[in-house]
């Protein structure tokens, strides 16, 4: 599903955010990416959906060399990736339904399919009754559910989540994690950067730990391993 071979990322200021990363993530895995603040987790995540590009090395997604993609090919690859952020990133002037449907409109999905698919994913995340609500009428947890629905609506093979529970209270965080587990059970690969020690230690999955830009631990059914 995702492979990195000797990947380095050096920013213009000379900071080595990542160095000599070699990772393989298989279809259907649920992977936590953990480590101290500034360790390189967000850079690691961003490289997967080409928000950032490596200084050196190769990244493959579903067999495609991400670095060698032509610009016109990038939207096609991104259809197979759903991204969920800590700050939701909903469009404030669109309803829940419109925020989710927008993700289908940008890939020019047929309107008939949009009308069928959007209510399905909003029901999956428990928000079918609030599809006409504006983001400012929704709680933080509900906004994150809309963001998750938006990530899911194009049936991606992988969901990449960067601190998806970072702005949520503990009870709501567990509700969101229940949804991620349900999505993973259906076969979608999940890669999640997180600081949430309790979630990682209770829902034991594969853990990739990054420190100072290097992978220092790659453990099946791992624990968080840091103070939080």
Question: What layout of secondary structure does this protein have?
Answer:
Layout: E1 2-10, E2 16-25, E3 30-34, H1 41-48, E4 56-61, E5 64-65, H2 74-78, E6 81-85, H3 96-105, H4 111-124, H5 140-152, E7 158-162, H6 170-185, E8 189-193, H7 197-202, E9 206-211, E10 214-219
Parallel strand pairs: 3-8, 3-9, 6-7, 7-8
Antiparallel strand pairs: 1-2, 1-4, 4-5, 9-10
How would you describe what is shown here?
It is a single chain. This protein is an alpha/beta fold and 228 residues long. The protein has one domain: 3-Layer(aba) Sandwich (Rossmann fold). The protein is built from seven helices and ten strands. The chain has helices at 41-48, 74-78, 96-105, 111-124, 140-152, 170-185, 197-202; strands at residues 2-10, 16-25, 30-34, 56-61, 64-65, 81-85, 158-162, 189-193, 206-211, 214-219. The strands form two sheets. The chain has a six-stranded mixed β-sheet, sandwiched between helices. A four-stranded antiparallel β-sheet has the order 2-1-4-5, covered by helices on one side. β7 (158-162), α6 (170-185) and β8 (189-193) form a beta-alpha-beta unit. α3 crosses α4 and α3 (96-105) runs parallel beside α5 (140-152). InterPro entries: AAA+_ATPase, ABC_transporter-like_ATP-bd, ABC_transporter-like_CS, ABC_transpr_LolD-like, Cell_div_FtsE, P-loop_NTPase. Residues 2-228 form the ABC transporter domain. This is Cell division ATP-binding protein FtsE.
């Amino acid at each position: 599903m995702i492979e990195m071979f000797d990947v380095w990322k050096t920013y213009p200021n000379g900071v080595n955010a990542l160095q000599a990363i070699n990772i393989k993530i298989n279809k259907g895995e649920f992977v936590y990416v953990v480590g101290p603040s500034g360790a390189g987790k967000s850079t690691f995540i961003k490289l997967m959906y080409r928000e950032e590009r490596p200084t050196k090395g190769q990244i493959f997604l579903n067999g495609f060399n991400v670095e060698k993609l032509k610009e016109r090919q990038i939207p096609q690859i991104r259809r197979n990736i759903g991204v969920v952020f800590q700050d939701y990133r909903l469009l404030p002037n669109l309803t829940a339904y419109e925020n989710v449907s927008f993700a289908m409109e940008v890939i020019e999905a047929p309107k008939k399919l949009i009308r069928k698919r959007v209510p399905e994913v909003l029901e999956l995340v428990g928000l079918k009754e609030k599809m006409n609500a504006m983001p400012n009428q929704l709680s933080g947890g509900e906004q994150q559910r809309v963001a998750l629905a938006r990530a899911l609506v194009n049936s991606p093979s992988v969901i990449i989540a960067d601190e998806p529970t970072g702005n949520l209270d503990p009870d709501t965080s567990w509700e969101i994690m229940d949804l991620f587990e349900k999505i993973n059970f259906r076969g979608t690969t999940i890669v999640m950067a997180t600081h949430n020690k309790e979630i990682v230690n209770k829902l034991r999955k594969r853990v990739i730990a990054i420190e100072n830009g290097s992978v220092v631990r790659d453990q099946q059914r791992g624990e968080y391993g840091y103070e939080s």
